[in-house]
Amino acid sequence: MEQGPAGGTSAAAAAAAAAAGTGGLLLSLSETEQQRYSELFSRCCPPPEAAAGGSSVGELFRASQLPPDTLHQITEVCGAKRMGYFGPAQFYIALKLIAAAQSGFPVRIESIKNELPLPRFMALKNDTEVRYGTPAELHGVKFQVTHATLEKNSYKRTDEGDKQEPKSPPMSPICSPPASPSTYQRIPLNYGYSKARSGLEQQHGAPYEVRHSTHQQDGPSSGNYGPKSALTCSTPNRSLSVEREQQDSSTHYSDDPWRITEEQRDYYINQFRSLQPDLNAFISGSVAKNFFTKSKLPIPELSHIWELSDVDCDGALTLPEFCAAFHLVVARKNGYPLPETLPETLLPEYLQAASLKPMRDCALFDSYPEPLPGSQQTRDFSRTEKSSAEEVPDKAALLQDGKKDDKQALKVSTALKTIPKEFQHLTVKTAAQESSALKARPRSRSYSSTSIEDAMKKGEEPPTPPPRPQKSHSRASSLDLNKIFQQNSQVVRSGWLPPPPPALPPRPSVSQTEQPSEVDLHPQMNRPPSQAEENSSAKKEVVLAQPPSKPARRKLRTEAQGLETPELSPTINVTSSLPASKAHLPVQKQSSKQKRAIQTAIRKNKEANAVLARLNSELQQQLKEVHKERIALETQLEQLRPVTVL
Amino acid sequence: SVVCCPPQNYPLYIRSVPTENELKFHYTVHTSLDVVDEKISAMGKALVDQRELYLGLLYPTEDYKVYGYVTNSKVKFVMVVDSSNTALRDNEIRSMFRKLHNSYTDIMCNPFYNPGDRIHSRAFDNMVNSMMMQVC
Hints:
The complex is a heterodimer. Chain A is mainly α. Among the domains of chain A are: 31-113, Orthogonal Bundle (Recoverin, domain 1); 262-353, EF-hand (Recoverin, domain 1). Chain A contains 33 helices and two strands. Chain A has a two-stranded antiparallel sheet. Chain A is rod-shaped. Chain B is of the alpha+beta class. Chain B has one domain (2-134): Beta-Lactamase, CATH 3.30.450. Chain B is 40% helix and 18% strand. In chain B, α2 packs antiparallel against α3. Chain B is globular, with a radius of gyration of 14 Å. At the A-B interface, α15, α16, α22, α32 and α33 of A face α2 of B.
């Protein structure tokens, strides 16, 4: 056959190279061996290339039915790891080592000096059939998957053997690749996935159920490959890592299960879009709950995943949070134990990118999200059209870099989109933080778009401080009764009257029956008309200080319908004392720190209010008593006076 | 030792660091719930951040202090500390209750959490444990 002479020459060259590669060991191959090896080598790399693709090699090795660590050893020994790819010499040495291993010899260079039978590759015919199978053949999926997946996906396959039931969407990326089995031999991991992604995007509109039906077709076929794949799941990773080293791995595809690959991220983004068309908005808690419940994970685990991924604890998921949550669900489905804390790659990565460009013009990002998905898709398709291996690594790096930038920009825009949208989401988030925090929570604050908040805070600090100091805190601190008696009691009342009336009305609604004294206070306090001026000025201060937090809280209420925060609404009732009509100040420029400060101030004021109200009631009672005494004295005087006058 | 109870007065979360006398601690907490309720009904004002201080609650021999804290939705937090630990000041207790409240609202934000369920959140556990380690 024509491969023969070529094989012969290459074998000779390989022998020489093997001699060089293995430190002076001359590898002599017999005729049959040469033929066989060249055949296998050509199968592994049909185009006339010097290097065999790691994926096909890996598959071949697996077909030899050797245990995975033996295969690792073989790859190491033959020098492929060192070189990063399987050259003809390495390949032949590897084949020899396989033969040795199959004959029961240890994997050493020495063992292949002997005459050995040809390495046996089980089910090789099946492999080839499947390999060159039709695109529609779903079996091909498995082989491409074995090459083109990380460990995680290989775990997925073992799961498939167990669960026939429709599973969450993570299964579907595996289902969609059948469109391109012919590409996987030469095209390395990323591009197989790019095809998968394009196929996925074509199917994008399909709901879960459709995907599950295709997946179920996979089910029975996967049963055959399930055990085999379980055996050898680790080896494709090794050979894959070999291959990856060869390419420019600008995307850092290590075996880190907590790193979200580009494909996965795209998938998550698509899913996000299906739930919430606006990529910059939130997915509310209930929607997300339904979505993740479909993954059939137990509720406590889902609860834990939510805890991990919802870092700002607002009961809603932004795009990065959603991706992190989804990723955790995927990992869990594949048998990974859930971490106690959110892994680095799942959180700061995104938010770092988000905080990278905080000062960019918002208008720029208005147009960003629209072309972004389009550009992603076009890039995908353009990428898949390339078939030559050489161009691909360079362009892959460029495209992936560009993609990464886009993704980062997307994330930034998700963070920044809140600004053009009248700060609704940001205020919701910050308001949620505020109202849920009740006090400062710097740790959570640092996560969510701090840079943007900083920028806004600086704009906000100057206007608001002036009202606050006039809140008469100094008076609040002086609880000394004597002091108050010494001071003009009227002054005290005038200073404190304005705040209590706004605050009190909600309170009686909460505890009406228990406060007859307070009810007495109301008419008394409303009486003095002379303090109208002070009333209005103090009220204005209250208005200024309170509305900024109020509208945000109102928004919180409207937005967070999915939120389960019953205890927060009473706080909102209590604190949003002023009527809604008064507070339509622009909500746009809110900063969380300011709100925090305001809230603490409000809280202090309330406490002071409460104390002083009590004082007030006591004083009132004393006043009544004094009045009574006075009346009694006066009557006595009246009684006595006629006597003296007369 | 920390307990979190909703208005129906069954505990959602209970955790003690000194694991001996746990039953007695539970009993203490239960009785203190009554006092908390009484306090709530008595003073209707300033529901937020309400806390009371008990000294020598049950028997003079038992010297520990029971602190209570109620949220706006009548969720009660009760904390029991040894009186021997005199380093604990009021502010620290307040801040601890505040932290508890914050963590509780974080749990509430989780859509998978149904109010009334026992609290299994690991984050909450960690926070409570760290707090109690600080004290004891």
